[in-house]
Amino acid sequence: MRLAEGRGLAALAEVLFEDDNASYARLCEAVRQGRVSEVPGLAHQIKGAAQLLGLALVAQHAKALELAAKAGEPLPDTQALEEAWATSEQLCRAMGFLP
């Protein structure tokens, strides 16, 4: 994880929406394709990063995926996570945290 000194939340938002975007995409793809063994680690990573930024809905939906996968339960659809991700990214851009 790379953080630019003095950039605070902007640096964290950049890490999440740019660097962790590949992990987010892999998580959604793993859920869609039923690759359950990949879900807990990816969901945990997204959840932690989202919590650092206070993106509660992203963290909540990632946690639901993580817990369901660990419990062997059916995985929730990714639609709510995808909507929360898109909305959070738009808000971070509007607030100037992302280019």
List keywords for this structure.
99 residues; mainly alpha; 5 helices; disordered N terminus
* Element pattern in H and E: HHHHH
- Note the main sheet: none
* Strand fraction: under 5%
Number of strands: 0
Helix content: over 70%
Poorly predicted regions are 1-6
Shape: elongated
N/C terminus separation: 18 Å
Number of helices: 5
Q: Nearest-angstrom radius of gyration?
A: 13 Å
Query: Would you tell me the structural class of the helices and strands?
Result: mainly alpha
The overall average pLDDT, rounded, is: 88
Structure characterization notes:
The chain is mainly alpha-helical and 99 residues long. Helices cover 72% and strands 0% of the residues. It is built from 5 helices and no strands. The longest helix has 16 residues, at 56-71.
Short note summarizing the structure:
The protein is mainly α and 99 residues long. It contains five helices and no strands.
Task: Outline the secondary-structure elements.
Blueprint: H1 8-19, H2 21-32, H3 39-53, H4 56-71, H5 79-94
Helix pairs in contact: 1-3, 2-3, 3-4, 4-5
